[in-house]
Amino acid sequence: MATTSKRNLREEIHRSLEDKTLQRAITSAMDTLFERRKGALESIDFEGTRREARRLKEEALEHNPELLEQLIKTVEGYGGKVFLAKDAEAARTYIADLAVEKGVKTVVKSKSMVSEEVHLNTALEEEGIEVIETDLGERIIQLAHERPSHLIVPAVHKTKDQIIELFARTMGVENPPTEAEDLTRLVRDDLRPRFMKADMGVTGANFVLADTGTLVIVENEGNARLSTQLPPIHVAITGIEKLIPSMEQLGTFLELLPRSGTGQLLTAYVSLITGRPSTDTIDMGRANAGQVTEREFHLVLVDNGRSEAREDPELREALYCVRCGACLNACAPYNQVGGHVYGVDPYPGGIGCAWTWITKGPDSAKEINGLCTTCSRCTEVCPSMIDIPWLNTVIKQRNNERLGMKLRDRVFARADLLGDVSSPFAPLVNAAMKTPMAKISMGSIGIDRTRKMPEYVRGTFEDWFQERGQVTVRQPRRSAAMFVDCFINHNKPYVGEAAVQVLERVGVKLELAHNECCGRPALSQGALDKPRAWAKKNIERLHRLVQEDKDILFIEPSCLSSVRDDYRRLLENEGDEMLRKLDDIEERSWDVTEYFLHLVKEDKLDLHLRPLAETFVVHGHCHQKSLGIGSVPGEALRLIPEAEVIDVNALCCGMVGSFGYKEEYSELSRAIGQRLFDKLNAHEGTVVASGISCQSQIGEGTEREPKHPMEILIRAFA
Question: In this predicted structure, which of 76-80, 199-203, 290-294, 507-511 has the lowest mean pLDDT?
Fold first, then answer.
């Protein structure tokens, strides 16, 4: 596998954040794509359709060897030639040798990430062959001698002014047009004669139908059709994971891919190409006109690590990707630095880390692995339901096993232990952490010394709950157990106290779950052994509570996300009984604010809340959003008479647990947060946030003290 030289990611991040043109270009494009996607999905059942897409991808991958065999027989049966490339070198060598053999001097290409993956252009150019990218975005980055920054919008990092300057410099146009439509026409007029004279056309394929050998190509410019129909030789290069059995499955993917990728109900062109064109070859000035007189079709199916990933129960997840780019549009780090920083040639973002591991090896992938914050926003929008955070967690664990785990990451992984040790001596620990010596020590292990570390309290939430004794709840409606997370317990017990008091006011009889750490801090560092052990213990304890007809309540959304999402991954090999217990727990697990709202609605409670003539500015936690309950905090606060509630829309706060404390990511964390801070600062009032790390980041960035929804609600009960 290929390796890469060590990157200075911290410096790359800094340069990209200082590049105001880059920031303007990415922000504009990502905001547009994200909003267009939301509008396009209103006309379908997204959750149901993507569950079906996931099922179809799983089935197709399970039967990939049989589909490959069927496809090869089908294509060869209609006169095409199939080459199964074991790696990138084999793929580019086959196509380059074919081009030399057929006297090819000019190749026109439509967009193909796999061709970028195998560095096909370089191989052809080394043979003296001119390669012309015909997709507008790909043509722009080809002229700029850059690599793609996005899966579907390769030139997303460039502004219109930069493109105008590029065309003027590289196309010999003294006064290039300034409107987007005219710029597109300029490129089209330049490309049209190149299509006519091209000796070979190269395309990718979004899907390949095994039963008919049909290539499915979705696009908006028509260049793929010109690349396949005009040159006498058509070479399609694609990954072996793109195979699906037949046309029957295609409709589901066509419902999702355009909506997720570009926010369109359907792209302008959907080409289904089977076999060779039936028209004769026409000489319009081709270099190989006398040498190639009959149509040829070559299908290059690239493995390059895919078969190995298919057999890997964890990396297999990446092979469900349909290359829509929705995950990038929802990714806060990517939205700040783009794919040239958050990516390895050619694959960007969190999904790109997994694809880099598969196609280039661990050493290439490790450089960008830490940029995934595991916020799960990508999984929320993925049309194939790929758990990208889990992929990056697994890769982080494998890097730890290969290279060793940093001391800093070991410290962050044991939030539970730090709390247990620090709380009894809270005043001394808090004072010590502010000393210059402590800051120097933090800096020496890679913690940003300018960050204010969370303060501990001597009396924990568990202490408070036990010391106050059993509370009699009049007319109890429900019985529930509070899952105690490390930070509420050791750093902000008053949030837990408020939650308990609110729930008791609406008739919930509460006890503590006496759980282990949820495992989220360790998981985020790629340490899976401890969380796996904790998950087993927690499931046994929580399941006993569920059997006693008790609900399980979570104050910290990240803990709820761990139990609902990560535990299934951690324990998938522990047997059906364990997973059945987890099913039972998931059905009875609630975010505390979600639970409060549920009880109010289900039991039609007359709360008699006192008016609070105040404004509450609400930031939704990433894991609340990924769990589908992102609107709950604002909805709950709207129950308070005279309260004005404003929900702000931001991808992320940027802190995400320990991410913002790491020196190489701290500047990026603050930049992500700044977008949220600006939206919060546009409104007067009390900032409300459910997550503890969200509150820390917001407090530092706005100098306002955020509150948990339960802290507001208990005031309305007073």
Answer: 290-294
Contact 598, 480 (CB under 8 A): no
Pairing mode, strands 615-619 and 686-689: parallel
Question: In angstroms, rounded to a whole number, what is the distance separating the alpha carbons of residues 300 and 293?
Answer: 22
Neighbours of 79 (CB within 10 A): 12
Which residue in the block uniquely carries the two structure tokens 């003294």? 174
| Contact indicator for 149, 343 with CB cutoff of 8 Å | yes
Burial 489-500 (b: 16+ CB within 10 A, else e): bbbbbbbbbbbb
Pick the CATH number of 62-306 from 3.30.70.100, 3.40.50.300, 3.40.50.10420, 3.30.420.280: 3.40.50.10420
Q: What pTM does this model have?
A: 0.94
H-helix segments, 126-214: 136-143, 160-170, 180-197
Domain ranges of the chain: 62-306, 461-717
Quickly tell me which residue has 């990446």 as its tokens. 318
Cα 87 to chain centroid distance, Å, stands at 26
CB 80 within 8 A of CB 298: yes
For the chain, percent helix, then strand, then coil, each to nearest 5?
A: 55, 10, 35
Q: Give the model's pLDDT for residue 5.
A: 57
- Position 56, amino acid: L
Cα gap 309→278, rounded to integer Å: 38
Verify cis geometry, omega within 30 degrees of 0, for the bond prior to 346: yes
Alpha-carbon distances of 167 from 24, 156, 163, 268, 547, rounded to whole Å: 20, 16, 6, 25, 69
Reading the block at residue 10, the tokens are 């911290």
CA 118, chain centre distance (Å):
24
How far is C-alpha 571 from the geometric centre of its chain's CA atoms? 23
Contact yes or no for 643/618 (Cβ under 8 A): no
